[in-house]
Amino acid sequence: MEEDFASRLEQIENRIAAACARSGRGRDDVTLVGVSKTFPPEVVSEAIRAGVTVLGENRVQEALAKAPLCPSAEWHLIGPLQKNKVRHALSLFTTIHAVDSLDTLAALARVQRECGARPDVLLEVNVAEEASKHGFTAASVREALRAALDEGEVRLVGLMTIPPWAPDPEASRPHFRALRELRDALEREFSVSLPQLSMGMSGDFEVAIEEGATFVRVGTALFGHRNASAWKPERSADSDSYCYQP
Ligand SMILES: *Cc1c(COP(=O)(O)O)cnc(C)c1O
User: Fold this and answer.
1) How far apart (Å, rounded) are the C-alpha atoms in residues 193 and 81?
2) Residues contacting residue 111 through CB under 8 Å, at least 6 positions apart
3) Is the pTM here over 0.90, yes or no?
């Protein structure tokens, strides 16, 4: 199993490096986020031992229960963040990829002041404007950015998107490009720096890198298929006392 993991990681590393080379980017410009959701701590621990340094989880409670059972690593929240989970999220995650409402931004600002944690935050944009997806529109993201800049507490570092599912990775390219162009426009309009673009998953991370991704969120290609008997924490970590311990 450990060898399997190491060889899958090596293949993904090679594909990332090739995509960086093709698009004139340095390998250091792109961070692999290993999406470990549903996998048990034993498997995630192997991933960390094999050299994955950043893990992505989409559920706050699952990650909080799993992280203490694994060697030390950096944990990113890639799924939606509800207002009532902000305190818990700030106790673990150093980067929050998918903030999608003004309410959550306000809650982050408030809890950050109490806890002293200042994670990097990305705004999720629904570039294809799919009705079924979370995320700001290209219009409403401006309102969010304005509010966050006026407020001044949340450290906004970039944008994230999940394009419509498609079997052909090339189908994602226009959405990735749209996210990059939106980022470029926002940087000009608001005179801010938004260096991070979180885009690309197992099926399309190379195209995402060609279009400027700085975080690729890779689950299946690294860990294998997620199954129904997903790992669940025995007791939910629901104490309200979490504050970030650097
Ligand atoms: C699960 C998930 C991924 C990983 O998807 P794979 O196709 O398994 O690589 C990436 N991003 C988000 C937001 C996810 O929820």
Assistant:
1) 23
2) 86, 87, 90, 117
3) yes
